[in-house]
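Entry type: protein chain
Record version: 2
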Amino acid sequence: MSVDINAIGSHKIRSVPGGEQVELKTFWQDQDAVVIFFRRWGCMLCRLWAKELSEIAPVLKKNNIKLVGIGVENAGSKDFMEGKYFDGELYHVEDISTYNTLGFKRFNVVSIITSLFWKQSREAIAKGRGMGLHSDLIGDSLQNGGCLLIQNGGKSRHFVQLGPADMLPNVDILEHFNLEAEYKEETMANKVRDNIECNKQRDKPSIKNFLPFEPIHVIWCSRRCKQTKV
């Protein structure tokens, strides 16, 4: 799906915190921009993607490329901001039309649950869990996201998530801006999820253990830990 950058640029968003209204196009009028559209602030997979994107934030900043994270709503943004998951500016859309214009998929209750059993999702959940990341119940859990990579006066790339764990790799982002020479696999690789080490520390009982989809990870990671010990 192609995107009319001029049309999407006129959509209005609000800053987190503060609520200041700006148009999307202000991000790329005078510089290059990486604009991430997260699924939900409380989504573990979004928090994981935010952490991984933050690994290349210093490179983007050094090259005057703005890194922006946008959510589908304000609900849950405070916890996301305070968790320091993302090393960039934060905003939320005023209404769902921005996500619709960008062609971002919306799940239903059945398809979102099914998608969390996909191999890509299971591996990302395991990685996030190993990093101490968790989900919460705040906000719309059915919306998918994606990103825009925009060069000032040049080419753009439109990435649409097909599943909740679908993330554009850091190396692809840097390559879009001809910065592949600054890519360091050891720290920026969105580590191959097959190499995840299971977190051997068990959480103390708390409400997070009863959040949706946590059991999927617990069952799978437990099985994976047993296999590694053999």
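Comment: The chain has ten helices and seven strands.
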